[in-house]
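Here is an idea for our session: we take a single protein and study its fold together. To get us started, please write out a protein record for me. Start from the sequence, derive the backbone structure tokens from it, and show both lines together. Go ahead whenever you are ready, and we will take it from there:
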Amino acid sequence: MEQIGRAVKRINDRLESKRGLADIARDAEEIRAAASRMPSLFPPGSRDGHSDATPAVWERWPQFVAAAEALETAAEKLAATARSEAPIAAQFRLTTRACSGCHDVFRSKR
């Protein structure tokens, strides 16, 4: 999750500074790859208190997997958008919404 957070921050910084935009595709691919591994990070019975994950991850497993898949898809589209030099900011917002949507249900508030 921290890897995704760092990649999101890098993309946001690149968009704000309008510099390094060519590297957004690489950052988006990093998010996509991490999202594809996300369900494997939370196997049944793995709640050990060293995570911000709520019990909803395991109680609503199909929804959690779908949220991870939505992030993977959004990040894949962001990478494609960045490679095409199309307007990136709109797809970045959709990608971060996919992150937030998962956090709203599956991450405890700090």
User: Anything to note?
Assistant: Residues 23 and 82 are 8 Å apart (CA to CA).
